[in-house]
Amino acid sequence: MLLCFPPVKWSPVSRLFGTDGVRGLANGLITAELAMEVSQAAAVVLGHRQVQDGKRPTAVVARDPRASGEFISAAVSAGLASAGVDVYDAGVLPTPAAAYLVADLGADFGVMISASHNPAPDNGIKFFARGGHKLPDEVEDAIEAEMKNPRHRPTGAEVGRIQRFADAEDRYIVHLLQTLPARLDGLKVVLDCAHGAASGCSPQVFSDAGAEIVVIGAEPDGLNINDGVGSTHLEELQKAVLAHGANLGIAHDGDADRCLAVDENGTVIDGDQIMTILALAMKDSGRLKDNVLVATVMSNLGMKLALQEAGIRIEETAVGDRYVLESMRAHGYSLGGEQSGHVIFSDYATTGDGVLTGLQIAAQVAKTGKPLSELAKAMNHLPQVLINVKDVDKAAVKTNAELQAAIAAASAVLGETGRVLLRPSGTEPVVRVMVEAADMSTAQSTADQLAAAVKQHLGLQQPVAAD
């Protein structure tokens, strides 16, 4: 049965770029026409405006294995070449590989076609500036504005050329192997590649590093990406680690910019635990710049307490890996990330890299001779409760005196072993109430009290539409 959906057209009134590029339903918002238009605009902003010597600008284009990525990458490459950009088509690669190759090749910019952990029908277009860095809002806005201008259409010898980047994956693998503090000989590692972009390179690099590997979720067919596997579905990885008696398991998402782990007992090790293990190891080896870890406000307080005891300070940012990256770049910090598994090593990468993170975790198990479960004990997770309170005036969270008094009172009761965070949603009339405490009952009761206070003091007379 053939299902047809009318395309969702981008409106110049709304912002095209979201928090991580342009993302939406393939052939809905993300059409071939849009891919060409935004690529032609990017060719001007990231290419021709940056190249001063008269040479044609160059760009690296990569994608994850979604079926729609085939036509979208073709449209992106066509748009770039038609605007006078030479394209290096890297094929299917992780997002961090695309970013690395932009820098390694000395390209003027890069394009990654992926919707990360989203299901197969979605897709997205993400740009990297020279050096493999994510774009700031003002550059994305400049690309969007350029889409309204007449197209730059060179002719003859001035049109761009498209060539296959034949050794793209090999370059990335060599780079990853050079980051290892210890080989992985003697370790058995289960890899869950989410039927995604790491299905080729992750097994290869772990094997080259000396590990005995068991691979699941590495048979992408264009439609099964993230389907019941990967970092958002860890059950199969947990089963495989136990069934094979492995030392640990590593899970990627569809574009492999994040990593979660499973210890030898089948227990999930989240991004906060991963960052704790790596921060302590980097401090011991003198590689943790200023003894600072950059993390978002959503990271568990248990991580902060554990690292504080070890002499490591946490620099907190807003939620989103782009804010972690901004802080790291501004101060030269070497490690940062999110609870979701985006971990950034600025010495080796310009964005979160799930394969790199997995290698570093496995290397610590091999180097220390300690099981991952023991390494993870460095951090004690505090119970965390999150409640979304709907249909409230989220703009008044910081200004309502009664609510602020309730927050202060709750924080005083929790003391240093608890935390309260009230955060307005950026997309809907919801206030997120998060409470951490020494025990679950205290966390739940405190969260319930604050949620009631939000409803009492910020409740709307009539529900409002999502913004």
Automatic annotation (TrEMBL):
| Cofactor field | Mg(2+)
UniProt PTM comment: Activated by phosphorylation.
* EC number, as in UniProt: 5.4.2.10
The UniProt function text for this chain reads: Catalyzes the conversion of glucosamine-6-phosphate to glucosamine-1-phosphate.
Fetch the InterPro entries from UniProt: A-D-PHexomutase_a/b/a-I, A-D-PHexomutase_a/b/a-I/II/III, A-D-PHexomutase_a/b/a-II, A-D-PHexomutase_a/b/a-III, A-D-PHexomutase_C, A-D-PHexomutase_C_sf, A-D-PHexomutase_CS, Alpha-D-phosphohexomutase_SF
Reaction catalysed by this enzyme: alpha-D-glucosamine 1-phosphate = D-glucosamine 6-phosphate
Q: Which CDD domains match?
A: GlmM
Q: Which gene encodes it?
A: glmM
List the source organism.
Crystallibacter crystallopoietes
Pfam families, alphabetized: PGM_PMM_I, PGM_PMM_II, PGM_PMM_III, PGM_PMM_IV
Q: Identify which residues the record assigns to the active site.
A: S116 (phosphoserine intermediate)
Q: Signal sequence: where?
A: none
* Protein name listed in UniProt: Phosphoglucosamine mutase
What's one GO-annotated cellular component? cytosol
Q: What general EC class does the enzyme of this chain belong to?
A: isomerase
Q: Which family does it belong to?
A: Belongs to the phosphohexose mutase family.
Q: Which SUPFAM superfamilies match?
A: Phosphoglucomutase, C-terminal domain (SSF55957), Phosphoglucomutase, first 3 domains (SSF53738)
Q: Where is the Alpha-D-phosphohexomutase alpha/beta/alpha domain?
A: 15-149, 171-266, 270-378
Q: Which NCBIfam families match?
A: glmM (TIGR01455), PRK10887.1 (NF008139)
Q: Tell me where in this chain the Alpha-D-phosphohexomutase C-terminal domain is found.
A: 386-452
User: Which residues are involved in binding Mg(2+)?
Assistant: S116, D253, D255, D257
GO annotation, biological process? carbohydrate metabolic process; peptidoglycan biosynthetic process; UDP-N-acetylglucosamine biosynthetic process
